[in-house]
Amino acid sequence: MNLIRCTAAQCEAMAAVHAEAFPASWRWDEFEDLLDGAGIYGFLASSDRDGAPLGVILCRVAAGEMEVLTIGVAHDARRRGVAKALIAAALPAARDLGASECFLEVAVDNDPAIALYEGLGFRRAGLRKAYYDRRPVGFVDALVMRLDLNAAPQ
Ligand SMILES: CC(C)(COP(=O)(O)OP(=O)(O)OC[C@H]1O[C@@H](n2cnc3c(N)ncnc32)[C@H](O)[C@@H]1OP(=O)(O)O)[C@@H](O)C(=O)NCCC(=O)NCCS
Fold first, then answer.
1. Exposure pattern of 131-153 as b/e (b: 16+ CB <10 Å)?
2. Peptide bond into 136 cis (omega under 30)
3. For ligand 1, atom 27, which residue shows the shortest CA distance?
4. pTM of the model
5. Does residue 114 contact residue 80 with C-beta atoms inside 8 Å?
6. What 3-state class would DSSP assign to 105?
7. Which domains, and CATH codes, for the chain?
8. Ligand 1 pocket, mutate which of 116, 131, 141 (most atoms under 8 A from CB)
């Protein structure tokens, strides 16, 4: 697996793999706009065999806090450590930008993602009621999870 820090050149691949991970995905130009934002950075994982994009993470650091804006891995590439590798790349980058803690939101019914984050040392820090709009099915609560970047492995 190759991991690269994203620039505008990766936005099409970021959007392509995001679309494989999420039903409501972000367009390439949305990634491009986001990457222009202060404190925003991302990593793209791709196959070292054929260069196919495998996963993406986008984060923001502001006021000493890192936030994971999105992380997604293509269906066929799951359970091979791609998300773990993306987070492992993103945490030191956040420390370099002055962050001492990381927060993210995850739907309460997203067992794979919760298992991923808990395995990496994230702890439950709160609940946002009706955070995700899944109409017509309804709304789903989000867990807020937190990782102390000073306590996490460097
Ligand atoms: C959640 C997601 C990013 C995980 O990506 P991944 O590359 O498959 O995760 P990894 O292979 O790095 O898994 C690391 C650990 O997370 C946990 N985990 C990941 N997927 C899991 C699953 N389906 N069931 C149980 N545990 C899981 C396991 O502990 C795993 O370690 P192991 O494989 O050694 O047991 C991926 O399933 C995904 O893209 N889902 C859709 C988008 C999404 O929900 N994003 C998160 C939004 S908050």
1. bbeeeeeeebebbbbbbebeebe
2. yes
3. 112
4. 0.97
5. no
6. strand
7. 2-148 (3.40.630.30)
8. 116
- Give the ligand 1 atom nearest the CA of 80: 11
Per-residue pLDDT tens listing for the chain (154 residues)? 999 999 999 999 999 999 999 999 999 999 999 999 999 999 999 999 999 999 999 999 999 999 999 999 999 999 999 999 999 999 999 999 999 999 999 999 999 999 999 999 999 999 999 999 999 999 999 999 999 999 866 6
- Enumerate residues lining ligand 1, CB below 6 A: 21-22, 55, 71-73, 78-84, 106, 110, 112-113, 115-116, 119
Ligand 1 binding pocket mutation candidate from 54, 79, 143 (most atoms within 8 A of CB): 79
